[in-house]
């Protein structure tokens, strides 16, 4: 059944998780231990919270500089990866006495923005300010490949595609979304989100900022049986894009195969099913009840039916939950205005990494440490937010009780 209304600001005040001494930057939730949360800050500290207890479990002072990203090792959440400046450190959470890193990787030349581990726990990807992505072989403990010369600016986000074991997708502040074959070190699909978007029927500008890619998210392996093979993009112009990656891959493949051989004729690339083709991208902007400023982060919901909702947070002091899958269901007739499921107003911004400050009609870049959010597989305190304060907030998502 369709949802009757959008719920705004669930009545229970957010739980305040204290332990950081500076602005909280990143948070991740354990899958196998659903009550466990790890968060980081600008002072190089990692805090561990067990949502079943009141106080912080323990803290790790692991760097002298801001921590930009955290991730667990897939299949072994006792291993934590931490990025600070151009370094990736590896920790075993059982070694509470020393907190000395097991390994340290210094392959990036510029500041790292995000790290992520692939589903087979064999590689780490680290995206940096120089536009490079380092693929690190964590079994052999060496650099496997460098992906470069495709992003023209900061590479802000990277994700492995769990259904394509040798591919990653990256997003950058050049407004480009790029799919790579990292075994070859080459891109095979480039999407420029800064160009006019045919899916945006309103024709009105979203906001003053460009369509920078601040963050991307892809479904986890255990979501793939119910969730399309998609990529979600948090954009600097306030838009959340949902893109069917397999459709984009087929388009790129068909275009490559349609190139005429010597003396031949090009093949037609017209899709067989036009209706299906029109539903390969979903464009969620302010006309759909979306963000009115840059979107800094996106994530899939882990609570309830995993992956049913996309959660986005932005510079407009708002967190939103989108029931995105209704748009791609063949038997559903709905428009974008039916997809916003939940809106939470925050007291502070969730800052994107780059903001623009006008000066005599010329914009200058101001580099910032961005904020993140994550979801947990629990029935309560299942939406964790890092904003511009040093206190991490845990919200009760109303979506647990509003299943369609």
Please describe what this structure looks like.
By secondary structure, the chain is mainly β. It has one domain: YVTN repeat-like/Quinoprotein amine dehydrogenase (Methylamine Dehydrogenase, Chain H). It contains 3 helices and 31 strands. The radius of gyration is 21 Å and the shape is globular. Keywords: WD repeat. Residues 269-279 have a biased composition (Basic and acidic residues). This is Transducin/WD40 repeat-like superfamily protein.
Key traits:
404 residues; mainly beta; Methylamine Dehydrogenase, Chain H; 5% helix; globular; disordered C terminus
Give the helix/strand layout:
Blueprint: E1 7-8, E2 15-17, E3 24-29, E4 36-41, E5 45-50, E6 56-61, E7 67-73, E8 76-84, E9 87-92, E10 103-105, E11 112-117, E12 123-128, E13 133-137, E14 142-147, E15 155-160, E16 167-172, E17 176-181, E18 186-192, E19 213-217, E20 230-235, E21 240-244, H1 245-257, H2 274-278, E22 281-284, E23 295-300, E24 310-314, E25 318-322, H3 325-328, E26 340-345, E27 354-359, E28 362-367, E29 373-375, E30 383-385, E31 392-395
Parallel strand pairs: 1-26
Antiparallel strand pairs: 2-31, 3-4, 4-5, 5-6, 7-8, 8-9, 9-10, 11-12, 12-13, 13-14, 15-16, 16-17, 17-18, 19-20, 20-21, 21-22, 23-24, 24-25, 25-26, 27-28, 29-30, 30-31
InterPro entries: WD40/YVTN_repeat-like_dom_sf, WD40_repeat_dom_sf, WD40_rpt
Biased composition (Basic and acidic residues): 269-279
Pfam families: WD40
């Amino acid at each position: 059944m369709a949802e009757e209304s959008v719920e705004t600001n669930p009545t229970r005040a957010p739980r305040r998780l204290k332990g950081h001494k500076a602005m909280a930057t990143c948070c991740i939730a354990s899958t196998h231990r659903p009550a466990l949360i790890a968060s980081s800050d600008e002072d190089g500290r990692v805090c561990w919270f067990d949502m079943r207890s009141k106080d912080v479990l323990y803290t790790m002072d692991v760097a002298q500089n801001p921590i930009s990203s955290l991730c667990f090792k897939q299949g072994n959440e006792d291993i934590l990866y931490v990025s600070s400046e151009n370094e990736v450190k590896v920790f075993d959470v059982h070694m509470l006495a020393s907190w000395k890193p097991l390994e340290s990787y210094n392959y990036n030349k510029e500041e790292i923005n995000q790290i992520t581990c692939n589903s087979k726990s064999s590689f780490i990807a680290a995206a940096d300010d120089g536009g490079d992505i380092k693929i690190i072989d964590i079994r052999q403990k060496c650099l496997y490949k460098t992906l470069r010369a495709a992003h023209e600016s900061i590479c802000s986000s990277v994700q492995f595609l769990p259904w394509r074991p040798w591919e990653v997708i990256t997003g950058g502040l050049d407004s480009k979304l790029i799919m790579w074959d990292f075994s070859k070190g080459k891109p095979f699909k480039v999407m420029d989100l800064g160009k006019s978007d045919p899916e945006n029927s309103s024709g009105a500008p979203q906001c003053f900022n460009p369509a920078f890619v601040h963050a991307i998210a892809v479904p986890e392996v255990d979501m793939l049986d119910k969730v399309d093979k998609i990529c979600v993009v948090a954009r600097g112009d306030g838009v959340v894009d949902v893109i069917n990656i397999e459709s984009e891959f087929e388009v790129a493949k068909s275009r490559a195969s349609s190139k005429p051989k010597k003396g031949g004729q090009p093949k037609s690339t017209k899709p067989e099913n036009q209706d299906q083709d029109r539903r390969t991208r979903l464009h969620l902007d302010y006309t759909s009840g979306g963000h009115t400023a840059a979107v800094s982060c996106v994530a899939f919901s882990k609570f309830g039916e995993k992956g049913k909702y996309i959660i986005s947070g932005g510079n407009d002091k708002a967190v939103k939950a989108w029931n995105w899958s209704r748009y791609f269901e063949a038997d559903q007739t709905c428009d974008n205005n039916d997809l916003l499921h939940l809106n939470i107003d925050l007291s502070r911004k969730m800052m994107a990494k780059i903001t623009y400050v006008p000066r005599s009609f010329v914009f200058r870049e101001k580099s910032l440490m961005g904020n993140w959010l994550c979801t947990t597989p629990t029935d309560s305190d299942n939406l964790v937010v890092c904003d511009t304060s040093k206190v991490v907030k845990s919200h009760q998502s109303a979506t647990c009780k509003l299943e369609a």
